[in-house]
Amino acid sequence: MRNGKVALITGASKGIGRGVAYALAREGYDIAVHYNSSDQEVLEVVSKIEAMGVKTCLLKGDMGDPDVPGKLVNETVEKLGRLDVLVSNAGFTVFEGILDITVEKMDALYNVNFRGMILMGQAAARYMVKEGIKGCILFNTSVRSFSPHGSDGVYGSLKAGLNRMIESFAIDLGKYGIRVNGFSPGVTNVRAPEPEDEAIHPFYKDSHRFIPLRRNGYAEDMAGAVVWLASEAASYVTGQVIRIDGGLSVVGAPESFKELQDFFQIEDKLKDMPEFK
Asked: Which residues pair with 184 in a beta bridge?
């Protein structure tokens, strides 16, 4: 049943964004589905959302283009009538160390993962303030914003900057009744979530070993936290970033054997531990 509210999710054609779109649709939100390049996948997402009995619209745009965020908000309002919840999720990862990362990759990360996020939040906030909507703005950061790993200096630092930005934006918008929060995913298996596929995946088959809860995260785990943050149950929560990582950031553990091998002197020890082969 529709709840009369509208949510816009960027990067909703796959992965965490898709999981969030489905979860909010099940809660009755009409959904603006944004994507950039996954044309076939996004059509399946729209079809499934419509089957849940809510309205949806399809939006396309490159989040590295500074004109796109405002355009997405305008199109959402034109097609669905209003905007109550923004989930600024679209982004990408580059894991390269200081010796290898290029100016081009640094600029691309900044344009999409930081500036694009800020401009998306700004566009939604301006609309909400103008219309008197006490909305909710959510940003997808990363567990790497809290716990540094090798080869993630630029990616992780920009995510950490988002955490700090969320705090200030929450202060800026609090007087309008607009809440600003973040969710920080840890290891999230969006590529091989089925048990039989996870068991043979080169990364996900072992990543659970480094997580206190002893399992990988999934899009549904991230979506559950987003649904709560967007709901009235979290009406007094703002300026916060919730870690959804199974405890990974608490212990500051690596995420894989490769990371252990790359950054720690353990090759001989691994050879002596048959359970890790």
From this structure: 243
Look at residues 243, 249, 217 and name the one whose alpha carbon lies nearest to residue 229: 243
Element (H, E) at 34: strand 30-35
- Give the N- to C-terminal CA distance of the chain in Å, as an integer: 50
Backbone angles phi, psi at 243, to 5 degrees: -85, 125
> At residue 213, does pLDDT exceed 90?
yes
Spell out the domain ranges in the chain.
6-194+218-250
Q: Tell me the two tokens of residue 210.
A: 């480094």
pLDDT higher than threshold 70 for residue 273: no
Catalytic residues: 142, 155, 159
Q: Whole-prediction pTM value? A: 0.94
Ranking 36-40, 72-76, 86-90 by mean pLDDT, the lowest is 36-40
SS3 129: helix
Distance (Å, whole) CA 138 – CA 240: 10
List the one residue out of 260, 180, 186 whose CA is nearest residue 218: 186
CATH code of domain 6-194+218-250? 3.40.50.720
